[in-house]
Design brief:
globular, A_deamin, double-stranded RNA adenosine deaminase activity, hydrolase, ADARB, alpha+beta, EC 3.5.-.-, four-stranded mixed β-sheet, 11 strands, binds zinc ion
Length: 375
Amino acid sequence: MNDRGFAVNDCHAEIIARRCFLRFIYDQLEMHLSEDPEVRGQSVFELRDGGGYKLKPSIHFHLYISTAPCGDARIFSPHGQDVETGDRHPNRKARGQLRTKIESGEGTIPVRSSGFIQTWDGVLEGERLLTMSCSDKIARWNVLGIQGALLCHFMHPIYLESIILGSLYHSDHLSRAVYCRIAGIENLPDLFQLNRPFLSGISSPESRQPGKAPNFGINWRRNDDTFEVINAMTGRVEGGNMSRICKQALFDRFMNLYGRLSSLTGQSVTTRPTLYSEAKAAVMEYQLAKQCVFQAFQKAGLGNWVQKPIEQDQFEMSQDVPDIQLKPAEGDTATTEVKKGISIFPTLEQISSLSLSLSLSLSLNFPGEKVVGQC
Ligand SMILES: [Zn+2]
């Protein structure tokens, strides 16, 4: 963790893919800075009546994940629900629970029932940094959209059209995890809704490669010359530099557009935010919708969402190049593995075996039935 937004805290593939998608969205918005109508016309966005931008009608986003997302969608996946005998799984009461990731691994554990506030000094003292599972984060995207708070300055939420799993697809578990368990959500601001994407497995499931989760994350988007490898232990790239998808880098992209594009939030020089947290807080409807998500989980008896310490977002835009460092920075979540010198860089075989993408179009043979609207 880093108090200047330089570290990527969560390197699970879904999370990396979404952050990379944010870069793509900034690219597309930046086209609207152009004087040339042809360039503007190539963007996936068009101007919206009343301010801001909207996706062109033919543009949809699909999420492909090589296996069930960690947490609620995956934990029960090997066990289907027997329709005749009912649900007899020994741990069935835990279904739907919010879960946090364990550091440097793929596993998750249920959130503490008492509610828990993470503090900055606690983490600096060595407390484990808690991050919600990918199943929980995807459920949240199904209400708040995949664009995050900053981009809501310029657009309404963008929802996933489909989520396709390469293996461990189970319609009950996946639909519960990504939207059904918060079907009782209430009081959402008008712009937001509970999105129920098309869910499916694929006709020839990917062979799974059990084993320890890799300690690196790879990202690239269309038009990138090369991929970037993030050390999952430090949240930075080789040499300690910041990643192009860390908060600081994306804040920089946001501030480049601030006040220069049509917006939904009436941006002006006088309202220019200094801190990343201020820019996020300025989109009040997004913040309200986020509270609705937390309450929906709580009301359903599924636990309290564990948020990161507020200090994490209280940083300004940085002008300096981050220090070159070979060891994790103070405050980063260093682990013994880095100290042991285990390689964080993938071989070509490993890269070709990684198969997660957030793509503009997807053409697959879906064997799964549409489960929309069953909760
Ligand atoms: Zn995950």
